[in-house]
Amino acid sequence: MATTIIAHLSSRRDRWRLYVVLPRPVSAWPEADLGSGEVPTVRERSRALNALGYTFTDGAEWQWTETTLWPDDPTARAYLIASIEVREAPE
C-alpha cells in the first residue's frame, strides 16, 4: 500500500504557506510561500504544489480546521489550516 502524503496550507504572521509533510525533519519539508491577503485559490495552491513536485490525489478535497495557540483562551486569535492528500507528480 502506498504511503499517504499530506499537504497543509496555513497562515502564519499573515502569510500563507503550503508545505508537504514527509517523514524527515520539518526543516526538510518542501514548502512554498503563497503571499499575504486572501486565502489562495485552489488553482494557486495546485500550481504551488506542482512546483514542489506534487499533485492532488484523485478525488482529494481540502479539509479545513481551525486552531489557536491558546485553546483555553476564547479571545485568542484563530488560525485556519487546510489539509489534502497528495502524491509525487509524474515526471
Notes on the structure:
This protein has one domain. It has 1 helix and 6 strands, in the order E-E-E-H-E-E-E. The protein is mainly beta and 91 residues long. The model has no long low-confidence stretch (mean pLDDT 91). 13% of the residues are buried. Strand 1 (5-12) and strand 2 (15-21) form a beta hairpin.
Portion of residues in helices? 10-25%
Number of domains: 1
- Please tally the helical runs, counting DSSP H or I stretches of 4 or more residues: 1
User: Which structural category fits the helices and strands?
Assistant: mainly beta
Descriptors:
91 residues; mainly beta; 1 helix; 11% helix; single chain
Summarize the structure.
The chain has 91 residues and is mainly β. It has one helix at residues 42-51, and strands at 5-12, 15-21, 31-36, 54-56, 63-68, 78-88.
Could you outline the blueprint of secondary structure elements for this entry?
Blueprint (H helix, E strand, L loop, with lengths): L4 E8 L2 E7 L9 E6 L5 H10 L2 E3 L6 E6 L9 E11 L3
